[in-house]
Every structure is written in structure tokens, then in C-alpha cells.
Amino acid sequence: MRYGLGAQLAAAGGARLAAGHTASDQVETVLYRLAASPGRRSLVGMPDQRGLLIRPLLRARFTREETADWCRARGLQWCEDASNETDKYARGRIRGQVLPALRSVHPATDENILQSAELLRDEAEVLEIVVDTALAGKSEISTEHLSALPPALARLIVRRLAEQATGSLCPQAAARIDELVELGAEGNEPAALDVGGGARAVVKRGTLSFERSPQRKARKPVEG
Q: How many domains in the chain?
């Protein structure tokens, strides 16, 4: 809600929306996503800018401690969220338990995590170019061609097509490649498969494309 409201205010004033995330927040985000969701994309962390949103402290690689020291040196007060110090929430447990344990293994834990996320973001740009080349500007691909591609590239293509169709993230689509290829091998009859994330795969004459899954109508209550 706060991002939505902030974006509205920024757009109305011809401005950018700045968030205060630090390098420390980035480290915690990467570790949380590593534990909570599979895939390379979960490990790239937060971008330092996206649309109207910018994260200047993150871009400058300032840590939470450095930011606090800067404020103290200038007599600036800040509001500390009480939930930061509790292990009730996942981020608090990562901050208070996981990171100290990792730092005991290697003192450069934070820096290594940050560098890994940056490298993955750089490599993601290369992978996007590879996907662009494979699709050649099309929004569909033959299932025969898809099955002949290296599995990693096939997953990226399926995910790209699904997300282009829905306008939102569809990480589940990449796990359904075998089923999609089977649909293409069943003959010329059109077939469809909902792959999650609001995306529906459609195979016609051996060609795969995606569309939004139709909204399901609410069932009428059964009268007793």
C-alpha cells in the first residue's frame, strides 16, 4: 500500500520514489529468498531502481550500521521498527540467528552475498539476450523446437512467454515443460493447460503460446 501511494505522489509531482533499503537489507533479502523459493531469479536481490522506485543507499552499498553512524554524527533521529529486534518474523531470525552463524564461518559473508547477487544480475542480462535470440521476436514457439533446446533455455523461454501474457511473475510455468511438450505431441487438436500464476498454455498444431487463465466464476451456494 505504501509503495502504491508513494508512486502516485511521485508521478503526480514528476519525481522519483526513494526507498531506504541498505546493503544489509539486501543481504537479508537474498538469504530469505534462498530459503523460501527456488531459482536463480530469487537470488538476485532487490534492484537499485525499477520504474519510479530508486534505492540510493543500496546503490551506494551503504550498510545499516553506516547509515546509523551517519545519522548519529549529524544528530539526526530515526524511528526504529520494534519488529526488527524480534525473532517472530523470518527477517528477524535471519538477522539475529542466520547471519551471525554465517559470519562465524567466514567474516566476509555479507560482502560475498552482495557480490554474488550483483554477478547474477549481470548474468541475467545475458540470459535475456539469449532468450530474445531464441524467440526472434515471436510470442510463440513450436513444442518440437522447445524439446530440442537445452533444458535451462527451454525453462527461460516458457517463463518469458507466460509472463508476457500475464504481465506478472509466473515461476511455476517453467516446471511444466514436459507436460507442454506432450500436449504438442498429441496431434493437431488444440489443447490448453493452466500452469499457475494466472497463465494458460495453449498448444495449436504443435505451437505453444500463452494467454491469461479465464477467471473462474464463483459457485452458487447449494440450497439445503
A: 2
